[in-house]
Design brief:
743 residues, alpha/beta, Spore Coat Polysaccharide Biosynthesis Protein SpsA, Chain A, 4 domains, ten-stranded mixed beta sheet, five-stranded mixed beta sheet, 30 helices, Glyco_trans_2-like, RgtA/B/C-like, Nucleotide-diphossugar_trans, Glycosyltransferase 2-like domain-containing protein
């Protein structure tokens, strides 16, 4: 072997546009150039021969084998690998000649600059891009069929200068590559035992996009960064679809499996459609507060200023801000993350059902019932954190069941469980009551010491982040205590530990978030709707098994602990328990599917489905069940209000949904200086506001909470105003138009 001699290897297939540039770039240091061609039909081989390369022809099987074959034909001590669309810059050439004379290293990492769509991509996970491309022939070998790399025995150095990679100049080239690479990636994944799941199909592309565009700063690459992040997400999705396709093709009875997969997919499509209907409702108060925050605060501002006066963790707001940067601030855009998390929760419910039992009817019943759940659909459409929290709760339960039932559980499940409980607590505080479910289940199953050690370490991240977050949490708690002392009625809004609130949990879980003025009709409907659910739950208790005990605890423990905790800190409201709704439908479905009579099973299931459809129909078609219609109310006063009129709220400031929708043509103010006003305070403030105003539009929204003694209305009377007209808007309440004949 020729000591310190450098052999350059290049594999080719129809590279006539690149090969000359590539070979000329290594002319200053290459003692020989080996070209292994896979059957080019253009002038690649002729050009390479003319430039002095040694040509070998070999049918392509995979990248590692092709490149190892090329290395085997070299005579130099060192191998330098180039692709035909790469060049070695002049500075790199000089550095390579010096590097091979150093005795300490058997290989060198070399950085690579990537040019895609005719511009250098400095981020988007294409840079930094360092790999071993220079190594001693006897010390290294290529491994990996698609994304191949050199494995070396010995010390590895690093060069400073880069080689340049001229990748896809057009979208067509990228798509052509994607089809070829995803085919090989799918084959390699199947060989390694990877299994398809819809969870991966949903998750992998989404995570890929966020990793490249945000975490790897792809946005700094401009439109190319966004485009490449999007294309690579499609790349990931295509790979998993091909894994599924190849797996189905290789199984002995693909028709049944394919049919089941198609049914599940179609049900998920139905779930998406049901959650898209009437999604363009007006934002209500809490939604508008979140929307206003993500639009007007920076990420740092959300963490340091906004969140201190809010009563929730920051993760949902940070997620929503990242989303709106790309998709804007329309009602649909703001609510779409909740829809995504809602669909993923639906699918996770199905996966959890599969972990509980092989009973296909049970799995499909749970899937269909949560798909059509009016309660889950309503909050999957809301731009709030509850749908996101429900997803992370379901994900933590799913990963925990895998840890609990598998003594040699994959490290991935430990990792997912650890991350999911961190994300869960930093999305919403109420799911903290889910933690006792994990600990109790583990104690009941009497897991061994090694398992408990791993289980403990999964909680370390949430403990660390919890400690770091503690100062902010203390500020939030102090603010909450102040609000409760200032506004005693707030306890009712926040949710105290009362029988009424407990009853509302059941009512909303069964029939959805409905409210009827005819209470006798409402209670009658709740009673009738409860019958099939009670049958299912009763039978589930009778037919309980070890694994269903976890689901039972998932449903019961958070409710019990949350109810007790709300005696001191009121937070027991039905919508805060969206994260246990999968457990509710799993237990109901378990009870129904384990009935002794198949006919009875199907009858009860049909009744359950009819209850869901009935609740959904009322929600869809009765606009009184929709969210507060601030959009219509604000649009109305913007149109009819005059310059010499004012809009007044019995609050220290204008309510956020008004600020969100108004065009700002008319003066709008809060009539009070504090949350606990008195008549003198309001009179002084109103005196300033009403100067020169002939008319006032007064919103009674939350009047009984912040102005229970009606000081604002009394003050208007004192200043000579009287009610001329009353307008009503769904959820917003009445808007009183007060006029004054003389100023």
């Amino acid at each position: 072997m020729n000591r310190n001699k450098i052999s350059v290897t290049i594999i080719t297939l129809n590279e006539e546009n690149n090969i000359e540039r590539c070979m000329k770039s290594v002319k200053s240091f290459a003692d020989e150039v080996i070209v292994v061609d896979s059957g080019s039909t253009d002038k690649t081989v002729d050009i390479a021969k003319k430039l002095g390369a040694k040509i070998f022809v070999r049918k392509f099987d995979d990248y590692s084998n092709q490149k190892n074959f090329a290395a085997s034909k070299t005579v130099g001590e060192w191998v330098f690998s180039l692709d035909a669309d790469e060049v070695a810059a002049e500075q790199l050439s000089e550095e390579v000649k010096s590097a091979v004379k150093v005795k300490d290293y058997n290989a060198y990492l070399i950085p690579r600059r990537n040019f895609i769509l005719r511009a250098e991509i400095k981020y988007t996970r294409f840079s930094p891009d360092k790999h071993i491309w220079l190594w001693k022939k006897e010390k290294g070998k290529w491994v990996g069929k698609v994304h191949e790399e050199v494995k070396v025995d010995g010390w590895v150095g690093e060069l400073k200068n880069a080689k340049i990679h001229y990748q896809y100049e057009t979208v067509g080239e990228f798509l052509s590559m994607m089809n070829k690479y995803t085919e090989r990636m799918a084959d390699e994944a199947i060989e390694k035992g990877s299994r398809f799941s819809l969870l991966r199909l949903f998750f992998a592309p989404t995570l890929s996009f966020f990793r490249r565009f945000f975490y790897k700063k792809g946005f700094l690459d401009g439109w190319r960064g966004f485009f490449l992040s999007y294309l690579m997400a499609i790349y990931r999705m295509t790979t998993w679809i091909k894994i599924w396709e190849k797996t189905m093709r290789n199984r002995s009875s693909p028709s049944g499996l394919l049919k089941k997969a198609y049914i599940v997919f179609l049900i998920l499509v139905v779930a998406l459609i049901l959650r898209l209907l009437v999604i363009n409702q007006s934002l209500w108060l809490d939604e508008s507060i979140g929307a206003y925050a993500v639009k007007n605060f920076t990420y740092k501002g959300i963490l340091t200023h906004f969140i201190a006066s809010d009563f929730h963790p920051p993760l949902y707001y940070l997620t929503l801000k990242s989303w709106t940067v790309l998709f804007g601030y329309s009602e649909v855009a703001l609510r779409f993350p909740s829809i995504i998390f809602g669909i993923l929760t639906v699918y996770l419910t199905y996966l959890i059902a599969g972990k509980i039992s092989d009973n296909k009817f049970f799995q499909m019943a749970a899937l269909v019932l949560i798909t059509t759940s009016p309660f889950h659909i309503y909050y999957s459409q809301e731009a709030r954190m509850y749908s996101m929290a429900a997803f992370f709760a379901a994900l933590s339960i799913y990963s925990f069941i895998n840890l609990l039932d598998n003594t040699k559980a994959s490290l991935a499940y430990w990792f997912i469980f650890s991350l999911s409980i961190v994300w869960l607590i930093f999305t919403d505080y109420m799911p903290i009551f889910l933690f006792p479910v994990f600990w109790t289940a583990a104690l009941i199953r009497r897991k061994n010491f090694n398992w408990w050690i791993k289980f403990f370490f999964t909680h370390v991240p949430v403990l660390i982040f919890g400690i770091l977050w503690l100062p902010t949490l203390m500020k939030q708690l102090a603010g909450s205590r102040w609000l409760l002392s200032t506004l005693p009625a707030w306890k009712v809004v926040a949710g105290g530990a009362t029988i009424k609130q407990l009853g509302l949990v059941w009512a909303k879980f069964t029939l959805g978030r409905l409210s009827l003025t005819d209470k006798f009709l409402y209670y009658t409907l709740i009673t009738l709707a409860s019958i099939p659910f009670m049958v299912g739950l009763t039978n589930a208790v009778k037919k309980r098994e070890i694994i269903t005990n976890i689901i039972t605890m998932w449903l019961v423990l958070p409710l019990v602990i949350g109810f007790i905790a709300s005696i001191w800190f009121p937070a027991f409201v039905y919508f805060r328990f969206l994260y246990i709704i999968p457990a509710f439908y799993l237990l109901v479905s378990w009870g129904v599917s384990n009935s002794r009579s198949p006919i009875f099973t199907r009858i009860i299931f049909i009744f359950l489905l009819l209850v869901n459809i009935f609740g959904l129909s009322i929600y869809y078609f009765d606009k009184n069940q929709h969210r507060e219609n601030w959009r219509e109310a604000v649009d109305f006063v913007d149109k009819v209000g005059k310059n010499n009129e004012a809009i007044i709220f019995e609050y220290p400031e204008v309510f956020t949904p008004y600020k969100w929708y108004t065009k700002g043509k008319i003066l709008a103010v809060g009539a009070t200086d504090s949350l606990s006003p008195n008549s003198d305070m309001i009179s002084q403030r109103m005196n300033r506001v009403l100067q020169g105003k002939t008319g006032v539009y007064y919103f009674e929204y939350l009047r009984d909470l912040s102005d229970p003694k009606h000081y604002v209305e009394s003050t208007l009377n004192e200043y000579g105003y009287s009610v001329k007209k009353i307008y009503s808007f769904n959820g917003v309440g009445q808007v009183f138009y007060w006029t004054k004949s003389k100023i």
